[in-house]
Design brief:
mainly beta, Jelly Rolls, 2 domains, four-stranded antiparallel sheet, 0% helix, globular, carbohydrate binding, lectin, Legume_lectin_dom
Amino acid sequence: MFIKALVCLLLLLHRRSSLASSSSGRYDGDDFIFNGFGGANLTLDGVASITSTGLLMVTDKSMETKGHAFHPSPLRIRDLSNGTVVSFSTTFAFGFISDYTDFSGNGMAFVISHTKDFSKALGGQFLGLFNQSSNAYNSSNYVLAIELDTILSPQFQDIDDNHVGIDINNLISNKSHTAGYYDDHTGSFERLSLGSGQAM
Ligand SMILES: *[C@@H]1O[C@H](CO)[C@@H](O)[C@H](O)[C@H]1NC(C)=O
Ligand SMILES: *[C@@H]1O[C@H](CO)[C@@H](O)[C@H](O)[C@H]1NC(C)=O
Ligand SMILES: *[C@@H]1O[C@H](CO)[C@@H](O)[C@H](O)[C@H]1NC(C)=O
Ligand SMILES: *[C@@H]1O[C@H](CO)[C@@H](O)[C@H](O)[C@H]1NC(C)=O
Ligand SMILES: *[C@@H]1O[C@H](CO)[C@@H](O)[C@H](O)[C@H]1NC(C)=O
């Protein structure tokens, strides 16, 4: 098996609508954007690294590796005065680079978590987020992940080998869909191949 585990990252998160850009990342209240991660103060672990051209590389081509990149400080997602959970949006560009045309590492995820410590989590199909025991649903896991998954793992009831899933506290997605987008003009669904090696 040529499993190269790409893993999870947490990157640009912005709330409200104002956006500003800079070469090194700017944090303005709860809005921020990174145009390249060269000067970004991210908390990296595992094999995650910043390349000389400012890309965030969450894993390398070794098997079953994991890496994470977290925003250095916690972000408040619940309004203190009334307990309302804020909405947010995030946008990032990514690519899965594989030595094989029809097979890539397991995937990656955008994660919101109460901890940056995923030292006990496994790579591979666990996406650097859980292990066999913690993947048993537990409301105390406090993990929300949007997974980009390129391998069909029957144990997690995956729908196919190219999907986006919303995971709450474990890797059995609450919702998932074949990767792609709806064309603005035609309204038709256009499939995207996550493992194609293209930036998307
Ligand atoms: C980077 O983040 C860490 C953790 O929040 C913080 O202690 C440190 O001051 C930050 N450094 C810079 C240059 O912002
Ligand atoms: C909660 O407070 C925030 C900020 O004070 C406000 O924008 C929001 O509308 C409030 N939500 C409710 C349900 O009262
Ligand atoms: C699995 O992960 C949980 C949560 O981090 C940890 O408490 C537990 O020790 C881990 N189990 C193993 C076998 O590593
Ligand atoms: C859920 O996680 C909490 C905190 O890690 C732990 O104390 C509890 O035993 C776990 N529950 C189950 C059913 O594993
Ligand atoms: C997500 O899935 C877990 C585990 O099946 C379930 O306990 C939880 O209620 C689900 N949440 C939502 C919002 O569907």
